[in-house]
Predict the structure.
Amino acid sequence: MRERHLYLVALVFSLSVCGALAHGRSEQMTEELNAQTPEWLSIGVPIKVEPVTSLTKEQPVFRSRSGGATNSRNRVQIPSRGIEIELDYNIDWTGNNETGLGCSLSPDGKRLLVNSGPKSRLYEIETDGSYREVPIRLPHVTYDAGLKGYLREWSWADDQILVARAEITDEAGHEIIENRIYVFHMKEQALSRLDLTALNLKDTDGLEVTNVGSDLNHLKISVGGKDFTVKTDLHTPPSVEKQQESAMPPKLPPSVQPPTPTPPTPAPTATPNMSPMPSTPDVQTPAPVVERKSSAWLWVVGIAALTVIALLVWKRRA
């Protein structure tokens, strides 16, 4: 009887763990990824990227994504100026300070972006090395057509243009479909995806921008552990895609408002809520993305564990 009870307890526990781990996307994440584009943000047409077979003699000067800044778990260093900043939160870090994955210094050396998971913070660096945090409004969701994802690892391309990457998962949040690169023009408040179709990439695993050309027409990207140079146009603000129509009709100026006829009194009915959805203006609120390639293996492990337990119980009875 004791063995049977032990078997039932193990069965319930294993099924509970497998079911919990198989759930990949919370209700909050689903709402955020399906939200309407904020009113302040424009979605630009994709920016085409083409391969480069050979560079001309006048090669552009490439600048690293980090802009010369490095970071450890909770410190940012700017070696060229002898500055080190200690922060009270963890920064994106790969274990190698030189990669500068969690920070990016603007070309003018006056602004520092610090990435911490789904959040990015901006600091102004004074000439004497002092610094202060200032507000910044960045999109945190891709918002363009198709499946959505969270934007992460923001870095400076120039003083007014930022680059980020996004991992796009299936609707359940279990499997990564592709990796993408996005460009944000701050003056125009326009977000655009890099169109990598011409590169004929078989896989986008590990896709990221590592260096930006000084002419903003060349990038060095890494994908699948390989680095190569591509050409594009980050300098020209992209054309804006047609915005989604609002659920409410536009208001006319008072001088041309048509007269409103008095409607007959209708029977009481439920009034739908036609208020527009609230916008999500910055990067400060999204929940961390749960990254899982697949959940099928979880069920395999669970079933295997149950089989082993059943064999042990049977052997003990024998």
